[in-house]
From TrEMBL:
It comes from the Bacteria. The keyword ATP-binding does not apply. One of its GO terms (cellular component) is cytoplasm. This is Putative tRNA (cytidine(34)-2'-O)-methyltransferase. Belongs to the class IV-like SAM-binding methyltransferase superfamily. RNA methyltransferase TrmH family. TrmL subfamily. Could methylate the ribose at the nucleotide 34 wobble position in tRNA.
Length: 162
């Protein structure tokens, strides 16, 4: 599926919610330290509910360690930021892509985004706010990537009988 990468996440409830979404979307979650919380934090587990045990979680000590293991795929890195005009749905996502998001308070460091400027993407917003909640942003971009590639995956459809 897609690799969800959180660089220096700070809020445990966002990470827990993103972990739950990753399980349901079939995506591994990469967390890059430093983290603003402890992984065994009860709030993190509460936000992820009972999904946390099913999460394909990879924790990296630093961006450099993450790049040493995954840098050969950097042309398939997509950086979510408010500092570009390229809309997320204009990107052509492929299975295995890395969808990379920054911390809640600071976003992605500029030096990270500069490694592949043409793959910086943004979510359109009105001028009334600065940014969206991290968990919301991850969900929007991830499910657009899934929508673009739905024929390549086996998702069960929810059946509702009345």
């Amino acid at each position: 599926m897609f690799n969800i990468v959180l660089v220096y996440p700070q809020i445990h409830t966002n990470t827990g919610s993103i972990g739950r979404m990753c399980v349901n979307a079939g995506c591994p979650l990469h967390l890059i330290k430093p983290l603003g919380f402890v992984i065994d934090d009860k709030h993190l587990r509460r936000a992820g509910l009972d999904y946390w045990a099913s999460l394909d979680l990879k924790i990296w000590e630093s961006w450099d360690e993450f790049m040493a293991a995954n840098g050969k795929f950097k042309q398939r890195f997509f950086f979510a930021t408010t500092k570009t005009n390229k809309l997320y749905y204009e990107a052509k996502f492929q299975p295995g892509d890395f969808l990379i998001f920054g911390s809640e308070g600071h976003g992605l460091p500029l030096e990270i985004m500069r490694t592949n400027r043409e793959n910086c993407i943004t979510i359109p917003m009105s001028g009334a706010g600065r940014s969206l909640n991290l968990a919301t942003s991850v969900g929007i971009v991830t499910y657009e990537a899934i929508r673009q590639n739905i024929d390549k995956f086996d998702f069960r459809s929810a059946v509702c009988e009345f």
